[in-house]
Amino acid sequence: MEAHQIKTALALLRYISDWKGVYILFNGIEKKSYDVLQTLRCVLDSLLVDEPKKYCCSISNNFIKNDNSYWIHPCRIVLTQQEYYKVIPNSELTIQDQIFAQAIKSGCEWCPQLNIINLKSLENNLILKDIQ
Predict the structure, then answer these.
(1) Which residues, 6+ apart, have CB-to-CB distance to 87 below 8 Å?
(2) Structural domain boundaries of the chain?
(3) pLDDT in single tens digits along all 132 residues of the chain
(4) Whole-structure pTM over 0.90, yes or no?
């Protein structure tokens, strides 16, 4: 996706989002206009940096239940939702699976910048001042 395409989509979506009978579909699945607007804005912001990964990924230690270790989280939108929906480590679903499920719940799983592989655990001895 190019920036001018995203800007056009944002303008069109803002214009038609309040119309009755308007549906937004991605891969045949209806999406909420707010989720699409939020994701398109995020994608547009990610294109302002030389490498989108630098924008999309954030360091966090509060999205996995009962785990305070630091992780590089692959999605800003999903991370903001994980204040309410924590990842619970278990043997049936990987952390990546749960984050992708939360991306679906947040309506941003179609984002071209979303790359679950970017999820990484940081070294335990890493101190926050080292990464500032």
Answers:
(1) 63, 64, 65, 95, 98, 99, 102
(2) 3-131
(3) 789 999 999 999 999 988 988 889 988 989 999 999 999 999 999 999 999 999 999 988 888 888 878 889 999 999 988 777 788 888 888 999 999 999 999 999 999 999 999 999 887 655 555 555
(4) no
